Amino acid sequence: MEHLILEIGLALALIAGAGLLSGKLRISIVPILILVGMIVGPQAPHIGVFDFRFIQSAPFINFMGHIGVLFLLFSLGLEFSIKRLLTAGPSIIRSGTIYMVINLAIAIIFPLLLGWQVKEILVVAGIMTISSSAIVAKVIVDLKRAPNDETEIILGLMMFQDVFVAIYFSVISGLVLAGSTSIPEIIITALMALAFIGGFLFLGHKLVSKLDLWLDIPSDETFMLVIFAVLVLVAGLSETVHIAEAIGALLIGLVLAETEHSERIEHLIVPFRDFFGALFFFSFGLSIDPFSLGGAVWPALTAVILTLLGNTVSGVLAGRKAGLSHRASLNIGLTIISRGEFSIILANLAKTGGLLTLLQPFAALYVLILAILGPLLTKESRWVYNRLRPFLKWPQIPDRRKSRKNTGQ
């Protein structure tokens, strides 16, 4: 294939440039990758041998991005073991329930009012409800907020959402890919998905001691090949039972997180996750023609406003219920606003299932806006608090400079 290597080189150069730019701007790389992909997509110029449309390399880039989805979900599963999810306690259930009831209700009512069909409504509900774990974690680290009181609740919410993702994504993927339309078919699809998840996690939990023994491989090269083989095989197995392969990757991550090799796996997998994950977001951008976004502008902007409102309210309620201050509670709502990988995965699922074509540009705009606004609002949470305080009768934040002056510091 003529110029294939050159096209791949151009794609990698653009992705690397996006990484450098995100570092300079101190924002998430996700929206930049999507933007770059959109700019050099199907409408991009062809200058001599430099073809920015990536015609020859598109199938390869899409395949690599597909692998990126597996690594993203697998890595997410590694962060939370089955045991940790079960022992996290009532605080996660309480905070997560508040968050889900408010945001899922908004996310269902919105597309319902637009007159969309059931499958589209369920896909949009997932797109609008689940935060980006990658962006949220990066924001907490970048702003050095790990020791903050509200961070434990935020992490609990992320864990709750991960469990919700495992169930919801399995049900939705089965519904979309299997083509179930009647109520009995939907119930059967849901039960099959839940049975697959439950059975897999139960079996995996019982086999932890054996997995520790089987994975005791001295060579890092062989160890990595075994992990990759298991990851792809489980993902492929889940696909054969009409459950998206990404959920298989998440499940095997949850199981392997319980083994004594979890840190070794995570150490080896992070570079691949970041590399293939970047290709995933870039390839998603490539699939979007910016000239086709017109019809998605108003639905996306409306969804963004509703998400800002729903996340802020649910975050404040969850924080106050846990006994946190108004400021810390607001930080919860602002920190979890960003949307990312799961929303895009659902949009791709909708495309595979032949659903409404508007869903992909809608998801692209929605994720793009919130992936920028989320980190920005979190960083400027003090300013947001001071703007809301007079209307909500919240207490004033003590001025640190005056406090230091009064104490002679």
Span of the ends, CA to CA = 69 Å
- Major sheet attributes: 2 strands, antiparallel
CATH topology: Na+/H+ antiporter like fold
Strand order of the largest sheet: 1-2
CA gyration radius, whole angstroms:
22 Å
Low-pLDDT residue spans = 401-409
Q: With helices defined by DSSP (H or I, 4 residues minimum), what is the helix count?
A: 19
State the order of secondary-structure elements, H for helix, E for strand: HHEEHHHHHHHHHHHHHHHHH
- Global structural class: mainly alpha
Helix content: over 70%
Written account of the structure:
- The model is unreliable at 401-409 (pLDDT under 50).
- This protein is 77% helix and 1% strand.
- The chain is mainly alpha-helical.
- Helix 3 runs antiparallel to helix 13, helix 5 (90-113) crosses helix 6 and helix 16 (341-352) runs antiparallel to helix 17.
- The chain contains 19 helices and two strands.
- A two-stranded antiparallel sheet has the order 1-2.
- It has a single domain, classed as Na+/H+ antiporter like fold, CATH 1.20.1530.20.
Which helices and strands appear, and what pairs or packs with what?
Blueprint: H1 4-25, H2 29-39, E1 46-47, E2 50-51, H3 58-79, H4 82-87, H5 90-113, H6 118-129, H7 133-142, H8 149-178, H9 183-206, H10 208-214, H11 220-240, H12 245-256, H13 262-286, H14 297-321, H15 326-335, H16 341-352, H17 359-379, H18 381-392, H19 400-406
Antiparallel strand pairs: 1-2
